Amino acid sequence: MGKSLKGKELGSGLSQRKDGRYQAKYYIPGSPKPKYLYDRNLAKLKKKRDLEKAKYILGYNDKAKKYKVSEWFDEWMKLYKIGRIKANTVRGYVDGFERGADFIGAVRLDCLTPSHIYNMVEGMQNDGYAESSVVHTLSIVKQLLQSAVDNQMIPMNPCKGIAIEKSEKVTVDPILEDESKILQPEEIKTFLDAAKNTRYYELFYIILNTGMRIGEITALCWSDIDFECHRIRVYKTLNRTTIYFDEGKNRLEKPESVKQITTPKKKASYRWIPMTEGVELAFPSWEKKQIADKEKSGSSWGKENPFLKDFPDLVFTTQPGGVFLPQYANAECSRIISIIEKKEIELAEKENREPRLYEVYPHKFRHTFVTKLNESNMSPFTVSKIVGHTSVNMTNYYTHLEQDYVADEFRKFAAKYDEGKVPAVPEKE
Questions:
Q1: How would you class 198 by CB atoms within 10 Å of its CB: exposed for 0-12, middle for 13-18, buried for 19 or more?
Q2: Do 71 and 148 touch, CB atoms closer than 8 A?
Q3: What is the mean pLDDT of residues 66-82?
Q4: Cβ atoms of residues 365 and 205 within 8 Å
């Protein structure tokens, strides 16, 4: 360990000369003799040393010349990601990288510099990508290039030290935004009343009273419903994803969209959800519809559903026994809302007022459910367990107290602590 003139430890192979310059001693493979570099700036000297040492790593230049950045990305995915991560996560990596590929994809690894990365970030920002998308892309590129460093293909990661400053711009009133994420009691009643005579009424009722994610409820099997213990087992999810690589880990000429039932990405999503009496009644009500579908379709029921082989007792299916995808629930919500809005517009015209319109989608049911749990004074830890949040902080972020509830709670506070001691405002003479 070398020291500075003031006695400070500088690290292995580093020292400071009497003339003030810093000295770096290093060795290259195959040579017993040390080499030396000098600079008055210690940080610059360390970078010089690392670069010089890297030049002598056997074959690193040849490896880097072999790949363009896009080519290395495909190879990297094949070596380190595909088969180890879920298909949805693979899609996230591909989508994230391709946003930046227009700027750096055609550049050879050995020619890539921090300037290319800065240009990529600036270019994505100018193209109108959201801040989160730019951050995501930069994170993927950092991982990609760090792997190239680890594989002795390039001496340093060009992304090192590059960060994106977070914007503090507020475009939406946060109070109004919070209110838009939940359904008010009258909105819930209006929606359920309109949905009561539709096919998937029970599905919406269950989401509203369990907080399940739409992919979780569409992946439910009858064996997941424990009527004896009054609870639902959640351990899988149904979704549609895009496949970019075949089973041999080779890039497909054209990406393919596939449906899949997989385990959740996060451990917290594995859970038991208690059932209310209403939820327990909703399941057999739906089962009657499914049994009627089977009787009507006969042997053809479920023939086009690939999941029934592994999950023969799927709860929610289409009339012919097909897969009920999450997007179908969104479409059904929109259809029900269009019926509600048509009636509301007609009524508003008769009453000479503006119609009251609102947006409804399945994930909004989840927001509403979390809010109701919080308003019941349930502990955040318990709420997290029920809804599958990874942390209490996530539950707090996710929860939006209704203003009526806040007002009621404040009135309780005022009744208890307001003793009428506020000085009266003196009247003007």
A1: middle
A2: no
A3: 91
A4: no
CATH topology of domain 62-150: DNA polymerase; domain 1 (1.10.150)
Q: How far is CA 40 from CA 17, 35, 37, 75, in A?
A: 10, 17, 11, 41
In terms of Cα–Cα distance, which of 413, 356, 428 is closest to 186?
A: 356
Each as own residue / partner, the long-range contacts of residues 317-320 (CB below 8 Å, 24 or more positions apart, any chain) are: 317/290, 317/293, 319/199, 319/293, 320/293
Q: Between vectors from CA 234 to CA 233 and to CA 235, what angle results, nearest 5°? A: 120
User: Do you know the residue count of the chain?
Assistant: 429
DSSP code for 323 = B
C-alpha 200/C-alpha 197 separation (Å) is 9
For residue 110, give every residue at least 6 positions away whose Cβ sits within 8 Å of its Cβ, in sequence order, or none: 61, 64, 65, 153, 154
CA distance linking residue 204 with residue 211, whole number of Å: 10
CATH class of residue range 2-56: alpha beta
Q: What stretch(es) of the chain map to CATH 3.30.160?
A: 2-56
* Three-class secondary structure of residue 35 per DSSP: strand
Two structure tokens written together for 347? 């009524």
Instruction: State the DSSP code for 253.
Output: E
Strand order in the sheet with 14-16: 14-16, 22-26, 35-39
Structure tokens at 6: 């003031």
Residues of the chain with CATH 1.10.150.130: 62-150
Q: Which of 386, 417, 397 has the alpha carbon at shortest distance from 177? A: 397
Identity (one letter) of the amino acid at 271? R
Identify the pLDDT of residue 97: 95
Question: What per-residue confidence (pLDDT) applies to 20?
Answer: 87
Distance CA 56, CA 29 (A): 7
CA distance 184 to 153: 58
pLDDT tens sequence across 2-48: 788 888 888 888 888 888 898 888 876 556 778 888 998 888 888 88
- Here the tokens at position 85 are 């991560």
CA separation for the pair 242, 91 (Å, rounded): 6
- The whole-angstrom separation of Cα 225 and Cα 231 is 6
Q: Would you call 107 exposed, middle or buried from its count of C-beta atoms within 10 A (0-12, 13-18, 19+)?
A: middle
Q: In the structure, what pLDDT confidence band is assigned to residue 361 with cuts at 50, 70 and 90?
A: confident
